[in-house]
Amino acid sequence: MDKTAFLSGQLLLAMPGMSDPRFARAVIAMCSHDENGALGIGLGATVDGLGFHDLLDQFEIAPGDAPNAPVHFGGPVEPRRGFVIHSCDWGGQDTIEVAGLWALSSTIDVLRAIAEGKGPSQWVVALGYAGWDSGQIEGELARPGWFNVAGAADLVFDTNADERWRRAFERAGVDPRLLVADTGTA
Predict the structure, then answer these.
(1) Looking at the predicted structure, is the pLDDT value of residue 177 above 60?
(2) Which alpha helices (DSSP H) does 28-160 contain, by range?
């Protein structure tokens, strides 16, 4: 597969009528995509009643001045595993940079750094991820259900979860109010 066809650094948006209800109005920040498969972190919904301070408390980390930001539903795979999508101005153990747009960390060092005020300047926390085996996402993209758009730091870091889906479509020149779940026949 041509490297330009990979989705790393893009946002994957669920179309209306997505057959899997877990992905209704999903916004997935694609962090890794190659011939072996793909991994993305959902940023379109938050986990009710769970804030960043709750996660820090589970690891016995004092929150310091870190805001009690919402925790996102990153996806249905390993829903107890945490991920931080963050600005590229910080890197730690196992941090991967994604297309120069953001970075992904999944180790406790990023949580400590944020709590100590020494972490990335921008960050979003999620539990779980969306994953696809080799060729699986390409098959899904060939059917109605997903729409991919260019990734943008402001959509990831400066937009509330409940607004990301609409704003990402609008950024691509699509009015999401005009999208329908059903297809017609000619």
Answers:
(1) yes
(2) 52-58, 108-115, 136-141, 153-157
Q: How far apart are CA 116 and CA 15, in angstroms?
A: 39
Q: In this predicted structure, what is the pLDDT of residue 185?
A: 56
With a cut of 50, say whether residue 134 has pLDDT above it: yes
d(C-alpha 140, C-alpha 109), whole Å: 35
CATH number reported for the structural domain that contains residue 117 in this entry: 3.40.1740.10
**Region for 60 from its dihedrals, namely left if φ exceeds 0, alpha if ψ lies in -120 to 50, beta otherwise:** left
The answer to whether residue 182 is domain-embedded is: no
CB 176 within 8 A of CB 167: no
If we measure between CA atoms, which residue out of 68, 71, 72 comes closest to residue 53?
Answer: 68
Domain residues for the domain of 62 are: 3-175
Count structural domains, the chain.
1
Are 47 and 70 a contacting pair, CB within 8 Å? Answer: yes
